Amino acid sequence: MDLIECPNCLQRIPGHFAVCQFCNQPIPANLRKAVPKASMFQDDVDHQAGSGFSDEVVWRVYNGMAIFWMVTALWGILDVLVIRPGMAGRGIPIDVFSVLGAMIFLFRIVVAVGLLQRWEWARKVGTWISLIGIIVGLRNTLLSTVTILAFGPLGVLIVLIALVDLALSAAIFWAIGETDRIMARDRMNYRR
Fold first, then answer.
1. How many domains are contained in the chain?
2. 46 domain-assigned
3. What is the separation of C-alpha 115 from the centre of its chain, rounded to a whole number of angstroms?
């Protein structure tokens, strides 16, 4: 890591810092070094944590997963309150389970909006929801392998659906963790 000397307090700091970590004074751009690229193959201790993807890619995955959660929750509300009852010829449902299902999907929309707004409580809830999704996805994947014996090719499709569900839960868990890392690094580098 390239170190430079802060012109204000004369302490040695990493060359890519925009603000001195000791005196909190801005470092002139002409003194700063290029920001090092994070890579999982890099030996630099400061960049060993993380996936090695650029911040832009991580934030795109994070925002995409939050939007995906919102869209699937909207679809879930539509399915629970309109599509399934319409297929059964009942009209709009009043039963407790349909309303409860719609409320869970509505909560998921609120969490997705919170993820997009980067609200800390929503990030924590999203982490727990995705962790539970990973555990349930692992269970569903294991249990669905039995369907291959019973249903043949259709069972393979059921296993693939369970694997996709597991992968989506793991992706949002990863994205929240990576954005936490990015935000912590940015707070450390740019605090005043």
1. 3
2. no
3. 8
Rg (CA), the chain: 23
pLDDT of residue 71: 92
Strands 12-14, 3-5: pairing is antiparallel
Q: How many residues does the chain have?
A: 192
Each residue's pLDDT tens digit, 62-71: 999 999 989 9
Residue 187's identity, in one-letter code, is R
Cα gap 179→177, rounded to integer Å: 6
What pTM did the predictor assign?
0.64
Cβ pair 73, 112 in contact under 8 A = yes
Shared domain for 131 and 110, answered yes or no, is: no
More confident residue, 22 or 52: 22
